[in-house]
Amino acid sequence: MDEITQNITFESAIAAVGAAMSDASRVKILCALMDGRAWTATELSIAAEISASTTSSHLSKLVVSQLITVIAQGKHRYFRLAGKEVAELIEAMMGITSNNFSSAKISTPPHLRKARTCYDHLAGEVAVKIYDFLFREQWITADGGMITLAGIEHFRLMGIDAQPKSSRKVCCACLDWSERRSHLGGYIGAALFTHCESKGWLTKHVGYREVTINPKGYHAFKDHFHFD
């Protein structure tokens, strides 16, 4: 395959992903799946406010474009995002889109702005404050792409193993669409969220991206990340 053919194929692939995300109903489906769970077609039809037959057509297009995957379990089929890269793409697009509106038109619900899921890690105001602390105390590198030795040790003291057991990137700066700043993504972002959940510091709401942080959680965040 010559270079021109390769470029055409690559550009066509990008265009196909863009086309798959060009429909408002499909975007609603993708946003619903941002909570990291696997959803049934019926649940997604309700979330997107469309008929079951229309949902089936949209899901097929999203599967073909490799934005979502299907999990078969017995007689049931569940749909979820194809991976963290897709979640990061959607989150980044939310940030880009919100820049097209004036501040008067932006109406992010306060509870979502405070704390929410971004696939498998924490997003929102609280997550941005945590990222700022990690950067300021040099637990992560300046670009947010690596965890430092100091960070590894501090996370170990928290009870979090900062050494990934897969090929997943250790950490990354994920653009927060409501705060327009970075929160912590990657393996360590997911590990931190799981740790907080296991400690009972926060609660996820099934079917929603909203996360509730309880007083115990805020106290723990103040101890570990030094903010109110």
TrEMBL record:
Q: One GO biological process from the UniProt record? A: response to lead ion
- Cross-referenced PROSITE patterns, in alphabetical order? HTH_ARSR_2 (PS50987)
InterPro entries on file = ArsR-like_HTH, HTH_ArsR_DNA-bd_dom, HTH_Metal-responsive_Reg, WH-like_DNA-bd_sf, WH_DNA-bd_sf
Q: Which CDD domains match?
A: HTH_ARSR
Q: What is this protein called?
A: HTH arsR-type domain-containing protein
Residue limits of the HTH arsR-type domain? 6-101
Q: Name one GO molecular function term.
A: DNA binding
